[in-house]
């Protein structure tokens, strides 16, 4: 009895520590690969946007502009999207193997006023465990399929003709 209680507590603290240590690797063809953790996420500029979930309800999502993340990773030489850089794209991957692609002009302020964020909060609260700790929000997509949950990596890659 005592040992099973101990085991229960052990697994509880283990799963809890996984949640605390959840991180997102930012990498690919970039000059400055880095890891986003719950700790250093807060030091990046936070913004709040409105977006609808699949059920049509509007929510407020807070987090960091994806453009700031790929800029910090030094993804675009001189931060001017042109020439060869226009073949770069962002591949986002999740714990369940789900993946989505975002093209760089979809987030570059020289090309668009749209904002895509890596969110950690919905309506002022941490995302629930089945969606967080980090989720991409693509507010202007009519379908929510690219609002990928449980993000583990963000890679900036270069598309090549086969
Ligand atoms: N990791 C992961 N994220 C995912 C999915 C998934 O299967 N795995 N499904 C997507 C799809 S198809 C939809 S419609 C939305 C649903 O999320 P919502 O109910 O919060 O709008 O999540 C998206 N994010
Ligand atoms: Mo969906």
Automatic annotation (TrEMBL):
Signal peptide: 1-19
InterPro entries: OxRdtase_Mopterin-bd_dom (IPR000572), OxRdtase_Mopterin-bd_sf (IPR036374)
Superkingdom field: Bacteria
SUPFAM superfamilies to which the protein is assigned, alphabetical: Oxidoreductase molybdopterin-binding domain
Gene3D superfamilies tied to this protein: Oxidoreductase, molybdopterin-binding domain
Positions of the Oxidoreductase molybdopterin-binding domain: 56-140
Keyword Signal on entry: yes
Alphabetic keyword roster: Signal
Chaperone listed as a keyword: no
Annotated protein name in UniProt: Oxidoreductase molybdopterin-binding domain-containing protein
Organism: Pedobacter ginsengiterrae
């Amino acid at each position: 009895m005592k040992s099973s209680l101990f085991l229960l507590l052990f697994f509880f603290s283990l799963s809890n520590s996984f949640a605390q240590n959840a991180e997102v690797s930012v990498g690919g063809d970039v000059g400055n690969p880095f890891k986003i953790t719950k700790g250093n996420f807060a030091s990046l500029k936070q913004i709040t946007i409105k977006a609808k979930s699949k059920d049509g309800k509007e929510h407020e999502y807070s987090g960091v502009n994806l453009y700031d993340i790929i800029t910090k990773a030094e993804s675009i030489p001189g931060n001017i999207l042109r020439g060869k850089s226009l073949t770069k794209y962002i591949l986002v991957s999740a714990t369940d193997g789900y993946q989505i692609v975002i093209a760089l002009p979809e987030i570059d302020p020289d090309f668009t006023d749209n904002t895509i964020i890596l969110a950690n909060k919905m309506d002022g609260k941490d995302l629930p465990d089945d969606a967080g700790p980090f989720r991409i929000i693509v507010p202007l997509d009519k379908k929510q399929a690219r609002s990928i949950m449980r993000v583990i990596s963000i890679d900036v890659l270069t598309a090549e003709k086969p």
